[in-house]
Amino acid sequence: MKKRVSGIISLVLALVLLVSLSACGNQNSGQTSGAETVSAETAALEETDAPETETVSNVPEDVSSAVSNISSVGGVPLITLSNGVQVPQLGLGTQIQSLERDSSESGRKLLNDTSHDAVVAALQAGYRHLDTAHGYFNETGVGQGIIDSGIPREEIWVTSKLWPSEFGEGVTAKAIDDMLERLQLDYLDCIYLHHPAGDYMGAWHDLEEAYKAGKVRAIGISNFDNYMDAFNQIMEEAEIRPQITQIECHPFAQRQETRVLAAQYGMQVECWYPIGHADPNLLQNETLTAIAEAHGKSVVQVILRWHMQEGLCAVPGSTNSDHIRENIEIFDFELSDEEMEQIRALDKGEEGRYFNINYEQMGGFFTSLNE
Ligand SMILES: NC(=O)c1ccc[n+]([C@@H]2O[C@H](COP(=O)([O-])OP(=O)(O)OC[C@H]3O[C@@H](n4cnc5c(N)ncnc54)[C@H](OP(=O)(O)O)[C@@H]3O)[C@@H](O)[C@H]2O)c1
Description:
- By secondary structure, the chain is of the alpha/beta class.
- 43% of the residues lie in helices and 12% in strands.
- The chain has a single domain (2-366), classed as NADP-dependent oxidoreductase domain (TIM Barrel, Alpha-Beta Barrel).
- A hairpin with a 5-residue loop joins strand 2 and strand 3.
- The structure holds NADP nicotinamide-adenine-dinucleotide phosphate.
């Protein structure tokens, strides 16, 4: 009976999280290297017992046949990943949780049309980095937005994520081809495993093959910081280690330990919920408001500038063209060391997180996706 009650509680909790996470989930110069921009992490690293890892030696150079032509646009710095490819540090997050729940044909059309328009607005405003996922049900709209923007595809860093229902050797290979078809692309710049659930090792092997075949220029993990068994297995057994890791990270949850660990494995950190999903407690925080006023900027701009100066990639989400423009106008001011310290002091550690899923108990809920 006790077991049954705890099962029901787990189910309810997981459903709440699933709905919310949705099928989820420097410098101001032109070009920066990931290694150069993680100075804080590197300093911390020297004080910790770093594992005996070769950070880049098992990552072959990008063998993609794709003619990528990514450059710094709108002042957005480029970060060089461990395999030598360059990623624009700021991107557009395209998940629209509020529209995901309506799985009717008209609901999906609205979701994809809205994503399309946000992508066009972002690319026209100077963004050259887009973050989508199979689990956001909007890859079709994102892909069409790229075409309709008029910006050459090879100038854009396009990321998507594989859902655990499509993890497994052979299964993932097909899922990658399907993903390319939905996006109308010949290659992706980055593919993540979205969650550490299901047959993630089988999926990783297929992702490595896709990398070797030139279908994807960088491969990454997302949310594996929440399940260290899976994280360690990937690090130990991968032929090609991830070059990038996507995690929840914002001023209330700055994830120092996770960032240090990522640096130890040569992985760039990319932040989801970079502005705390617009949590009013964060956006109306007194410290941030004072800093914003001092610079004549908005709190969101200050938070995003903080991400940039911390050497983090960030993918703020927005469907509002004014916000989209505002969020990239962060390269004409600089936070002082003191202001950076004030923002670092807002860190609440794990308490400051919005989602911290126990995959060991709830991983099973991530292995189905209806579409
Ligand atoms: N790997 C994962 O599991 C995972 C999980 C969650 C998210 N993600 C990725 O991370 C991206 C970012 O996450 P998110 O979009 O949920 O959270 P977020 O970027 O922290 O916040 C987005 C919210 O902020 C608002 N906003 C944006 N710019 C604003 C501005 N200048 N002023 C005021 N409000 C502003 C947006 O509303 P408006 O539309 O009105 O601007 C939206 O409500 C997602 O889109 C997705 O690509 C990944």
